[in-house]
Design a protein that fits this description.
Elements: H1 12-24, E1 34-38, E2 42-48, E3 58-66, E4 79-80, E5 93-99, E6 106-115, E7 129-132, E8 141-143, E9 146-149, H2 158-164, E10 168-170, E11 173-175, H3 180-194, E12 196-197, H4 212-218, E13 221-222, H5 224-237, E14 241-247, E15 250-256, E16 262-265, H6 285-290, H7 293-296, H8 315-322, E17 326-327, E18 342-344, E19 347-351, E20 413-419, E21 439-441, H9 442-445, E22 451-453, E23 460-483, E24 489-495, E25 502-506, E26 511-519, H10 521-524, E27 528-538, E28 546-559, E29 574-577, H11 581-587
Parallel strand pairs: 12-13
Antiparallel strand pairs: 1-2, 2-5, 3-4, 3-6, 6-7, 8-18, 9-29, 10-11, 14-15, 14-17, 15-16, 19-20, 20-28, 21-22, 22-28, 23-26, 23-27, 23-28, 24-25, 24-27
Helix pairs in contact: 2-5, 3-5
Length: 605
Amino acid sequence: MKLAAVLVVLPAAMLAAMASSLLAAAPTTIVDLHVQATHIQAAHLTWTVPTDPGGVGLGSYDVRYSTGPIDDSNWASVTQASGEPVPGTPGATERFTVTGLQPNTLYYFAGKTADASASPNVSALSNVASGTTLPPIAPVTVHNPWLVSDRVADTHNINTMAATYVNAYTPSGVVPPASDENKAINIYDNQKRRLYHWADEPPATGGDINDPTYNQNVFGWCLCGRHASQACTIVKAAGLGQRRIGLPGHWIYEVQYADGSWHAYDTMTTMYIYNKITPRKVANCAEMKADPTLLAGAVTDGRACPGFLLCGDTTDWYQGAVGSWSDYGDSAVTATWNGGMDLRLGQSFKRTWESWVNQHPTIGGGGTPPYHHEARRDYQDYVNFPYWEPYALTAAQSPAVNVSYIPTYRRWSNGTDTLAPDFRTAGYQSMLETASHDIATYYADGVTPDLHVNTVGTAGEAIFKITVPYYITDASFGGDFVKTNAADVCNVQVSSTGTSWTTVWTASSLGTTHVANQSLRTNVFGLWKTWYIKVQLKSTVAKTDAGASNFVVVTTFEHNKGAMAYLDKGVNHVTLTFDNAAELQASHNTLHVVYKWKEFDGTGW
């Protein structure tokens, strides 16, 4: 049987109907394309998955973007995004991130959908959405931040100590010195507020414990010889003469006024007395040796300092000691501590008034915490006690921090430094050490985990240096760590030097492992100021097969709360200073300061 070709002429109306039917086979048009959020170099889009009237199934998306409006006339010339998702279930929400954009730029986005036909039917152009990417973030570092109150002496460095320790800070206000004796007594009181006696010397790992800038900021305790040396250093910086005096089994210091006279002070035992001349002056050792009644009758005559010998020493002992006093001359040391820390983008630093259990040096004394051992008599020093009393530990609170002596006012305090690098901006770059290599971030390529290797098969290392100008007692890290294949590597290592490393954590299972507060105490306890942490990665198939997101490192340190910018009655002006304000301003970043205080006899913060 033979078939013959037949040509059929159809009416125009029927041809139009057939054409309409073919057009209807294309996926429906996206009408709710939306820029949900933008980042510095990315835009996050959402839309509803369209339907496919033709029944073939949805095949692909074509998402394009431009810095100018998009329509059918220029569709072919605008940039197509890469990595569009495979269409999901019709009616579901589709999410897609366009990467590789320029910062601080207005972009327009549009899309079409094709079905899964061999010759795909393509939808009409979607609605056009727009959004502006965020401005770039410069990896700025704030140098030497410091908080100071105008109602308290400033311990930032030896110059600020010399300029402010000479003042009397009282609940009624600040009283400048009217004489050299005022200066000497004020230096005595300001040191005494920040320095107490404990059974052992603090660690000297970070500096000279004779240096008041180091000791009075970091620790706040020492024995008599250090008390004297620190006072001599401040006195000399304030422009007065000074010398350390040796007594049998004890050290004190003397201050020389402009008239050449010498005057004896002892911040450890709480001792200075006035002589009997008119007008009276603080006595020196030679006067006390020559006239035993100066010491013996000091309290009765009203010539004793506030809290005279509150640590339990007797006038008889002191009288015998000054009978053999020796001049050891200029005992000022070179003061070197000045804060000097760097605060990088994504880093937060917190000092508290609180004492945390086991977060202090454990030298001597069976590891007992450092606190003033004669605290029951602290109230006798009525000039300085108001600045200690608010920090009393109750009978219920003391055992929680392993303190058996009740009450205590002067003791160790703690704080934390938190390093949380933002791998989605350039901010993390200010935290990376130069030895870091072969890593990539979400900021650079828009893929997760946020920290990953730059090249498959090549090991990458992200190294961070943690620096706090205090005594380190603890640390921990956390984050979401990814290991996809058995041969991938995802490790965390630590070092005290940045050269010799110890592995402290290894991803042992495949997938994403959430790590929270992984302790590093045994690795960092007792370090001074600096330690290092490294994330070590290697991917064997895709560069995102090993990596980390939400990486955070917390360092705990011990410091002296007496050196903080506390508040006093009335108006207080608290000021933040740092060395590179112009650089911070130019970077368009902000420095966020939170100051919390608790009213004495009040509740809450």
